[in-house]
Structure formats: structure tokens, C-alpha cells
Write a structure and sequence with these properties.
With 431 residues, chain A is an alpha/beta fold. Helix content of chain A is 32%, strand content 19%. Chain A has 2 domains: 7-112 and 152-423, Thiolase/Chalcone synthase (Peroxisomal Thiolase, Chain A, domain 1, 3-Layer(aba) Sandwich), CATH 3.40.47.10; 115-149, no CATH class. Chain A has helices at 22-31, 66-70, 74-90, 115-125, 145-150, 155-164, 179-192, 210-219, 229-232, 257-262, 293-304, 322-336, 349-352, 359-373, and strands at residues 7-15, 37-38, 51-52, 102-108, 170-173, 198-206, 247-256, 269-278, 311-315, 344-346, 375-376, 399-400, 405-411, 416-423. Chain A has a 10-stranded mixed β-sheet with strand order 5-4-6-7-1-8-14-13-9-10, with helices on both faces. A two-stranded antiparallel ribbon of chain A has the order 2-3. The termini of chain A are close together. Helices cover 36% and strands 17% of the residues of chain B. Classes of the chains: A alpha/beta (431), B alpha/beta (430).
């Protein structure tokens, strides 16, 4: 078997609750600063969970034309900004001669209609609670074609490919909380197939609106520690009681190893492996044995040509819900055996909350930065050990260390599991 | 590198307004019967567009027997699960699993992949909040306080875009590599391409496309954008005026040819290659020069190591809109020159299935090849002189070979081309 194509990460862009760019996000993640507070975007006073991880003081990139921005939802705007930063950071972008060689793969959120738009339909068609379609035919109903465009499932992909003039392979995926991971995994596979030479890949989401927040409140999945927002997300802590909803975007620029080295690009890490599986158990519950995530991790390591004991850092899915964290730890133990006690584990959701469809992409970026800077970011807010989560957490403060390889888990509602593997650029590539 | 194995189709499932399986859809097409009719899901008699191609008169239990599931998934998911179940059943792969011991069966499941092109209702899912919004009278605090007493606690799960992927896994035990592609119309076609390309990670894969776009808001927006016809889809016709929305799902089961032969499965066709590109034109616009589509076709040809001459027939996207059909004709001429094989398109029969369209078209393409018939397009009156000559006809034609090109286009300037052929065993090797 000939070696798999080696893929380099040469650009990173992030818009997160702890920073509107990569340097700020990384500084705050490693310092353990929380981006979680009472939600300010709308009146949350009546909701059971009133805290969230909002992106703060966001400004659109001045390079993006205002007309294009009209077609962008809040999540799309995060995506455009993070993608712009990633391309600038990489020092390479699609041009007239290379547009066909560039692909784009995104994990897109599921919310496509704003609350204001829904209120308009309610006012015209359902003021007494029941839906009457004829209200839409009222001449005053604001049927906005631009809002229609924004509501298409691939609207964000369409904006990104148009703005950055990417005209090769393009795909949008959605597997709930695993979306970002699966989008990056797809990008890796597409490049190894030779179907793209460069990829802009990532994820974006914003469910911090009345309907999105409601969806998770109804499921009882959110932490209701409304009075102590900064401590609410405490993955693997014995007293954890739910996740904190966040928003944002993360993008990576991926290119062929030889292309990257030939142009003298800075390589953060090798994007070495992708694994994904279906738990096929229950729609929200994870199997207590870790079945599902186990297969994703094994597949990813095999795909990367990594032995489990070469993994020095694990960016856990670590949502801070009772079941997820327990199941994920069981899976880590099953895959890594005794090495579980040595590999550093942290969930960056402890600081920035759960970015849902963007989570996997932002956390992949965190892995690449951890390898590049030689720092495993802290698992913040941990106070009391849970015997069912016996992993080697990065506690108190971030840990300087050489990271030969890192993995990032993303486990979604609906049972899709994604595990991505990254290797230090100086480590030998064993295909 | 291990040589790429031959990937074949051994199971097909389909549901749309024209029928509940490929055979009945094919019969309707052969009988030149269109399933486009007045919308029944709501009274559309005063609407600027009154027609669609709805799946009607079918009990939900016919689609998904488990009644408990009906409360936790939406209409589009019923179609997807139905088609996936039919494809898996026809393939007979689960019979093989029954013969395995526990360890081998677990490995079987881990090597069974699922790929879904999911459309889904963008608008109606949120309507479940209307009673709460009315009760709250614009007061968000009250909305928050009364939320948990008013709205179905499973609301979010009912509307997950990846529900079909999830439940295909749970129902059939598929646990391998997977994706849920939410790339508008091309989602289903891309699911097939992804399934065929992941042969190293899976021994079998089900690829599904499903959608239920016939919602009042969607119809209104499509109409205002000038995308909808009032009566029928007339692909490449001089008088074409738009498309008609349909709903349904298609699914195929893919595996390697050697696995299929080993277990004595009936091979329904072979996957040869795919191409996928965007025109980077934004959500709605289409390039007038056909550039994106022609590149997708050329990539599929390269992937399959084929020349245009070896394509025996084309199932065009042919959605009946002015811009898409015109650029499709230009793209086809760019690739094939004057040497175009017979062309057909199916949206006149069961409307535009959006995310499901590519898979259902692919299923029918395999039937065309087996029957050696390129069905006529009864809705076609006169080929647009600006697009002529184009070998598309109101009457049936004969394919010039055993391979078909299936085209699928969608919002976001997306273009996907798939190349398939009939059972390689029954066809002469060139």
C-alpha cells in the first residue's frame, strides 16, 4: 500500500466566546478564562437556563462586502470572519488560477430562521396559536427573498465559496455536535482522494436565540447554575450538571504537505487521521461502555498510523453532562488502556461552552495550537473527582509539554461520533 | 495501493408521488403519467401556485411501521427511513449477518456505513412554538417560564437534520463511518459518491437522500423568485417556466462486487465515478456558461477513466427553470460536442425532490440501462431552439451503451455528476 497523502494545517481562524480571533482565543483558553455569563442577546429572565457562551463585541471583517453580509446569518458572519483569519494566517488563498484546486467543507448549524422572522409568520398566520397558511398571502407579509436565501441549509457554504472564490469540491454536513469534526474529516478524505489540493474547512453555529435555547432547555441538557456562570461548565467534575450553550466558528486551511513545505509555510500540525462511527444506541444517550466513540477513536488512530501510546493530548468532547463525560472516559480507557493515566486530557468547553456544530472545528484548531505551542490547555473548574471519570486531566493550569500527537473527540446527538488525529510536524510520519 | 474495487448496487429503495418503489415509479413513467397535482397538505386554491407532487394516500405506518417513532421524527424522516429500509432489505445483507457469530456480527456492524443527504423542513419545525408565542403575547420572560409546560420536550430531537442517519443506525445496526450531508439538492447524490469512495473503511454502505420541501413558506418563496411552474416541469422546452416541488426519498445499498458475488446477491448496477464542484455563485445564481456542471462531468469521467463517447445516456437535472436548463445544455455540449447520447429527465413525473432528487434519478437510471430504454418526456412540446439540437424527446429513445451519466444541481452553485452502469456481468466488456 502506498503512503497516504500527508496533509498540513497551515492556517487557523477562530471566533469564539473567549476571543474574536485565534491569538485571543488561545490566550484565554490556556489562561482558563471563562467566556460564560448571563445571556445578553435577548431577555432570558424566564428560561430555566439563563447563561451562555456568547461571542462578544463581534465586528465583521471589513473585507466582506455589505451586500454579501445581508445574506449572512449571525453564524455565517462568524464563519466569514474565521475563514478570513485562517486564509490570512496561512498566507495563501484561492486566486483565478487556483480556484478550481480549492475545496470547502463545513459543519453547519441547524437553526436557519431568526426569531424575528418566526414572529412575523406568527403575527400573520398564527396569532391565535394555530397556523393558517393564507396569512402568508397577505400583501403586508414580509416575504424577504434574502431571508429565504439565508435559511437554506447550505447558505453558509454558498457565502464562503462565493466570497473566497472557491470553485472545487464543496460540502456542508450536519451531525449535531459532531458536525465540525465530520466536516474536517470529510476534508481530509477528499484531499487524500486527490479531489482537492487545498481545503478551507471548519464549522459555525449560533443557537443562542429563544428557539435554540428552548430546544436544549426542553431536553434538560443545560446547566442551570445561573448564579455562577463561570463555573457552570465543569467537565468531568463530580458535581457537573449539564452543558453551557455557546456559539462561534473555527476554520482551518489544509494543504498538501509538499505544497506547504515548498512555499516555506508555517505548519501548525499534520492533520493525520479521521475516524467516525455511529453509536446506534439511543438518540440522546451515549452507551455507558463507550461503544461508538471507541470505534471512532480506533479508526482515527489507525487512519493516522498512530499507536494509542503516542497520543500525548486528548481534547475531549467533555460536555459537562453526567452521561457524556462518563461514557467518553470509558471509551478512552478502552482505546488507550494504561496510557489513559499518562495522556493529558482536557475539555476546552470548560471555558468556552459548547459550540454545537462549530465545536469540533474549534477544538481541532485548539489541538493544532496545543501541538504548535507545546501547551495542553487547562480543564477549568474542576474541583471534585468523579470515580467514573478516571482520566489524567490537565488541572489548575495549562501544562507546557511536547505533544507528539493529539486527538479531538466530537460526539453528537443522533449518535454520530468523530475523532480527529493530529501529529507534531517534527514527528516521523509513518504511513 | 490496493486497486480500487468495483462498487456495485445491490439494493434500491424509493418513494415519491409516482410510487412507493422503483418498479411502480418506472411504470408511471412508462405510462407517461405525471403525479403532479393540486396541493393537498393545505388549501392552496387561492395560491399563486397550486400544484406539487405530494406523496398522498399513504399511511405513515406503511412508511415506518413503528408508531412510537412517528412522534419523534418528521415527515421527511419517514420517507428517508422507508427508502433506506427497502434498499437494505432488497440487498439481503442482513441475512448474511444472521449467519455470523457475535464477534463477527459486531464487526459486520462496525463495517456498515451510512450516508444521508438530508433536506428537511426549514420552516414548519418552528411552528410548534406558535401556541407558546400566542400565550406569551410577545413577553419573552413569559415565553421562557411557560416553555416546558407547553412545547414537546423532544422538539429539538424531532427536527435534527441527522435523524435518518441516527435511526438507520439504530434500526439496522449500522455503526460504521457516516455522514449527514446538508448541501441542498445535491445532498443525496453526494451521499452516494461518499459511500462509494469510502470502500477502505466499510464493507457496505447505505446512501439515502430524503426531503419534504412542500411547505407554504417554501412554495411562496420559490414562487416569488420565479422558480416555480404553474402546471408541469418541461425540461429544455421553449416554454419552460420553472420547476414543481416534489417530496420523497431514494436509497441505494453499495458494496464491493466481490462481496456481492460471494453471497450470491443480485447486482443491480455498478458505480463508476463522481465529480462535485461549486460554481461559487452564491445561493441562487447559476453561471450561464455551464462551467461548473461541465467540470463536474469531466471530473466524473476522469474518476471513472471514461471518455464521453462511452456514455450511453444522460439523466439530466432538467429542473425546468430558464437559467438552469440553458446552462445545463451548454455544459453538455461543451463536454460531448455534437456527439450527445440520448437525454431524459424525470421531474415532469414526480417533481423536484430537492435533496432526494439525485438518488431517485440514479435508481431510475439503472432501470433505464437494464431495460435499454431512455423514457420520453411527455411534458416536452418543443425543444428550445436556443438549446437545440439536444437529443431529448417526448418519445422513448434507446441508450447507445450500458453507462449512464446522472446530473444533479442545487443551490450554492452546486453540481454533482455520477456515472453508473448496468450489471457488469450481463454487459459485453469493451
Amino acid at each position: 500500500m502506498t503512503p497516504r497523502r500527508r496533509i498540513a494545517i497551515t492556517g487557523i481562524g477562530m471566533v469564539t466566546p473567549v476571543g474574536n480571533d485565534t491569538p485571543t482565543t488561545w490566550r484565554n483558553l490556556t489562561a482558563g478564562h471563562s467566556g460564560i455569563a448571563e445571556i445578553t442577546g435577548f431577555d432570558v429572565g424566564g428560561f430555566p437556563a439563563r447563561i451562555g457562551a456568547e461571542v462578544k463585541d463581534f465586528r465583521d471583517s471589513p473585507t466582506i462586502h455589505p451586500r454579501l453580509l445581508k445574506f449572512a446569518s449571525r453564524a455565517h458572519r462568524f464563519a466569514l470572519a474565521a475563514a478570513e483569519e485562517a486564509l490570512t494566517d496561512a498566507g495563501i488563498r484561492p486566486g483565478p488560477d487556483t480556484a478550481h484546486d480549492w475545496g470547502c467543507s463545513v459543519g453547519a448549524g441547524m437553526m436557519v430562521v431568526t426569531f424575528n422572522e418566526l414572529e412575523a409568520v406568527h403575527d400573520f398566520c398564527a396569532s391565535d396559536g394555530g397556523f393558517r397558511p393564507e396569512g402568508l398571502l397577505n400583501g403586508n407579509f414580509p416575504a424577504d427573498p434574502i431571508a429565504f436565501c439565508r435559511s437554506q441549509t447550505n447558505a453558509g457554504l454558498a457565502l464562503l465559496t462565493r466570497h473566497f472564490r472557491i470553485s472545487g469540491y464543496a460540502s456542508a454536513v450536519h451531525t449535531a455536535c459532531a458536525s465540525g469534526g465530520q466536516a474536517l474529516g470529510t476534508a481530509l478524505k477528499v484531499m487524500r482522494r486527490g479531489h482537492a489540493r487545498f481545503m478551507l474547512a471548519g464549522g459555525y453555529d449560533s443557537m443562542l436565540n429563544p428557539i435554540g435555547l428552548s430546544g436544549f432547555c426542553l431536553l434538560g441538557a443545560l446547566s442551570t447554575d445561573n448564579d455562577t456562570p463561570e463555573r457552570a461548565s465543569r467537565p468531568f467534575d463530580a458535581t457537573r450538571n449539564g452543558f453551557v450553550l455557546g456559539e462561534g466558528a473555527g476554520f482551518l486551511v489544509l494543504e498538501d504537505w509538499k505544497d506547504a513545505t515548498d512555499r516555506g509555510a508555517r505548519i501548525y500540525a499534520e492533520f493525520a487521521g479521521d475516524g467516525n462511527s455511529l453509536s446506534s444506541y439511543r438518540i440522546t444517550d451515549s452507551h455507558p461502555s463507550g461503544d461508538g466513540p471507541i470505534q471512532a477513536m480506533r479508526q482515527s488512530l489507525a487512519n493516522a498510523g498512530l499507536a494509542p501510546d503516542e497520543v500525548d493530548y486528548v481534547n475531549a468532547h467533555g460536555t459537562s453532562t453526567l452521561m457524556n463525560d462518563r461514557s467518553e472516559c470509558a471509551a478512552l480507557r478502552a482505546v488507550m488502556g494504561a496510557h489513559t493515566d499518562r495522556a493529558a486530557v482536557s475539555s476546552t468547553k470548560s471555558c468556552m461552552g459548547h459550540l454545537i456544530a462549530a465545536a469540533g472545528a474549534v477544538e481541532a484548531a485548539a489541538c493544532a495550537l496545543a501541538i504548535h505551542h507545546g501547551i495542553a490547555p487547562v480543564n477549568a473548574n474542576f474541583a471534585k473527582a468523579d470515580p467514573d471519570c478516571a482520566v489524567n486531566l490537565v488541572l489548575e493550569r495549562s501544562k507546557p509539554m511536547h505533544i507528539r500527537a493529539a486527538i479531538s473527540n466530537s460526539l453528537g446527538f443522533g449518535g454520530s461520533n468523530s475523532c480527529l488525529a493530529f501529529r507534531h510536524p517534527a514527528e516521523a510520519h509513518t504511513p | 495501493m490496493n486497486a480500487t474495487p468495483r462498487i456495485v448496487f445491490t439494493g434500491i429503495g424509493a418513494v415519491c408521488a409516482a410510487g412507493l418503489d422503483v418498479e411502480s415509479i418506472w411504470s408511471a413513467i412508462q405510462a407517461r403519467r405525471s403525479a403532479i397535482a393540486a396541493i393537498r397538505q393545505w388549501d392552496a386554491s387561492d395560491w399563486p401556485v397550486e400544484v406539487a407532487a405530494e406523496v398522498s394516500g399513504v399511511d405513515n405506518r406503511t412508511l415506518v411501521e413503528d408508531r412510537k417513532l412517528h412522534k419523534t421524527i418528521s415527515r421527511t424522516d419517514l420517507f428517508g427511513l422507508y427508502a433506506a429500509g427497502a434498499a437494505i432489505r432488497q440487498s439481503g445483507v442482513l441475512t448474511l449477518r444472521q449467519t455470523l457469530d457475535d464477534v463477527a456480527a459486531a464487526q459486520f456492524n462496525d463495517r456498515s456505513a451510512a450516508f444521508v443527504g438530508s433536506g428537511g423542513g426549514a420552516y414548519e419545525s418552528n411552528y410548534e412554538f406558535f401556541p407558546l408565542m400566542t400565550a406569551a403575547g410577545g413577553d419573552l420572560r413569559r415565553f421562557g417560564r411557560e416553555l416546558c409546560d407547553t412545547v414537546n420536550p423532544m422538539w429539538l430531537l424531532k427536527h435534527l437534520p441527522n435523524n435518518v442517519l441516527c435511526h438507520v443506525g439504530i434500526r439496522h445496526g449500522f455503526k460504521g463511518t457516516n455522514a449527514c450531508i446538508t448541501n441542498h439538492c445535491v445532498g443525496g447524490a453526494m451521499a452516494v459518491a461518499e459511500a462509494a469512495n469510502r470502500w477502505a473503511e466499510a464493507d457496505r454502505a447505505v446512501a439515502v437522500g430524503h426531503d419534504a420541501p412542500i411547505e407554504p413558506e417554501t412554495v411562496l418563496h420559490f414562487h416569488r423568485l420565479g422558480l416555480l411552474a404553474h402546471d408541469s416541469v418541461r425540461p429544455f422546452d421553449e416554454s419552460r417556466s420553472g420547476t414543481v416541488l416534489g417530496e420523497g426519498a431514494g436509497a441505494v445499498l453499495l458494496e464491493t462486487e466481490s462481496d456481492a458475488r460471494k453471497r450470491g446477491a443480485v447486482v443491480l448496477g455498478e458505480f463508476l465515478g463522481s465529480g462535485c464542484v461549486t460554481e461559487s455563485t452564491g445561493v441562487l445564481d447559476v453561471r450561464s456558461d455551464g462551467d461548473g456542471l461541465s467540470r463536474a462531468i469531466e471530473l466524473a469521467m476522469t474518476d471513472a477513466e471514461l471518455s464521453p463517447r462511452s456514455v450511453g445516456m444522460i439523466v439530466a437535472h432538467g429542473n425546468g427553470t430558464r437559467a438552469s436548463d440553458a446552462s445545463e445544455a451548454i455544459a453538455l455540449r461543451r463536454v460531448f460536442g455534437a456527439d450527445l447520447p440520448p437525454i431524459t429527465a424525470f421531474k415532469w413525473s414526480f417533481g423536484h425532490l430537492i435533496a432526494a432528487s439525485g438518488v431517485v434519478d440514479l435508481s431510475l437510471a439503472l432501470t433505464c440501462l437494464r431495460q435499454q430504454v431512455v423514457p420520453g418526456v411527455p411534458a416536452l412540446r418543443k425543444v428550445d431552439p436556443d438549446l437545440a439540437p439536444l437529443p431529448v424527446s417526448a418519445n422513448a429513445q434507446k441508450p447507445r451503451g450500458d453507462r449512464a451519466l446522472v446530473l444533479c444541481r442545487g443551490f450554492g452553485g452546486m453540481n454533482v455528476a455520477l456515472l453508473v452502469r448496468a450489471d457488469p456481468d450481463s454487459m459485453p466488456v469493451e
